[in-house]
Amino acid sequence: MTRNRNLSDEPGNLPPGSGDQRREIVRLAVPAFLALVAEPLFLLADSAIIGHLGTTQLAGLGIASAALITAANVFVFLAYGTTSIVARQVGAGSERGAVGAGVDGMWLAVAIGIVTGAGVAIYAAPLCALFGASPAALEQAVTYLRVSAIGIPSMLVVLAVTGVLRGLQDTRTPLAASVVGFSANIALNLFFVYGLHMGIAGSAWGTVLAQSGMAAALVIVVTRRARRLGASLRPHPGRVLKAARDGVPLLVRTLALRFVLLVTTWVAAGMGDVPLAAYQVSATVWSFLVFALDALAIAGQAMTGKALGAGDVIGARAATRTMLWWGVIGGGVLGILLLATHSLLPALFTSDPAVQSALGAALIVVALSQPISGFVFVLDGVLIGAGDGRWLAFAQVGLLVLYLPLILAVRSVTESLLAGPDLVAAQGHALSVLWWTFVIFMSMRGIALGWRARGDAWLITGATR
Q1: What is the pLDDT of residues 38-50, one digit of tens each?
Q2: Is residue 63 situated within a structural domain?
């Protein structure tokens, strides 16, 4: 590995800040955007389907989805780390080595998925009980989580294969899989929930079946490419263990970030079923918007890894500047659109006036925070693409330590607010306070990432870091 070696004039590298580079960002980001928003769009549809069953079911979905997404997304290094490793190999001119590294990631995903899925299914009740929701909401959450745990191996395989394809500079195939998979998911959920009257369990079964189909289709794509290049499809224990070890820093980073989201959900659950239901929908809307912005982070991962693999430091910095501007502007546009519709959206998800009122207040804060989200997600993607996982891990743990006193103070403040005479108004105010506290966390994260990106320590070139 080499630090700060500039080969930007070599064949195959894009001139820094050129139209070709901007077109490359668009080529990667647009399909990634469509693929990324497919998942939160499904979650929004799922929230609407379950929300019209009742507030208790929607509150239960809030608990179960927080636990399920945590169980799967703590292993997001299967996608992010694989993207960086594969992209560096591509930049260094070894597509066969890139696919071989991707196959190792797939086998690692299968192993982790089986163990994690079994653990979540067995301990679904105590996991959901940690959030302190009402007994009725807890019962719904446990039902959803136990069924959904069956799909965790497929979820992790999808993460790993998507990372391989992004590293190969292919964001169109994951897009096709996402559109087909999540469209089928919505259809299955409607059939199981309303056609077969299976309630919240029907929604979970629809998710499991759709995720399994997506995983199978994506594995076939990578398998065919590996055979064409002569890459081995057999698991290599030593290489799989190395892939696991290389993913540890990103695992730590993701665990710290997920803990931030979990403790925020815990505070929302302590407010009661109405604020928790409103938080579930507002958090899903936030996820939808940041997934849209994360498309630039995906382009950042793929382009940064490839550029540094080829030794093009200037190109990596130029692409980062361009994507940062686009991220902040894109966040502003999304925020304006949400502000314009924040009073209309709640009726799509629930018929409960109290939930609608609290949700409308929360969406205002979510909208105002989007430029910050655009800045944070782009820089996070760039540093992941550069393989700067160790620094990201330390930084995220530090930010968690700073956030905990704030969120615990918010729990005390919201308890006082909810003791007031006007409960409906108090629920909206309490949820707004919770969201503003999360915005403070995102701002601290942006400051830390911006400071790191200004330096040169992350700019290490070569096929491996």
Answers
A1: 666 666 677 778 7
A2: yes
